[in-house]
Design goal:
The protein has 101 residues and is of the alpha+beta class. The chain has one helix and six strands; from the N terminus they run ββββββα. The protein is 19% helix and 31% strand. Strands 1-2-4-3 form a four-stranded antiparallel β-sheet, with helices on one face. A two-stranded antiparallel sheet has the order 5-6.
Length: 101
């Protein structure tokens, strides 16, 4: 999962103070370019905007991933899910690569 088109960041602290907060993490998939994207890949199922103070808009997709169920660790399944989601989202932004300056 390496590409300049789609970056992935992990947040393991948000929600950690909830009873099962240590069983989840957040994965943010960031399309780090200030450009318009097609309407068919906008929305909560795909990409939403992140606005910055300098009036730029970037695109990201956020997933909450459960990697542990009580004492049962499901890290392998979580990693497989992340890889599948990354490939899905990457295939959506790949056609935009030609427009990146």
């Amino acid at each position: 999962m390496q590409s300049r088109l789609l970056h992935i960041f992990f947040d393991i602290e948000t929600g950690a103070d909830y009873p099962d907060g240590d069983e989840w993490f957040i994965a943010d998939f960031l399309f780090p370019y200030d450009m318009k994207i097609p309407d068919d890949i906008k929305g909560p199922d795909y990409f939403t905007t992140i606005s910055t103070a300098d009036n730029k808009n970037f695109w990201h997709h956020r997933e909450m991933v459960r990697y542990k169920y009580g004492k049962t660790k499901k890290l392998t399944e979580a990693l497989e899910f992340l890889e599948t989601k990354y490939k899905e989202l990457h295939s959506m932004v790949e056609p935009l690569e030609k427009d990146i300056k």
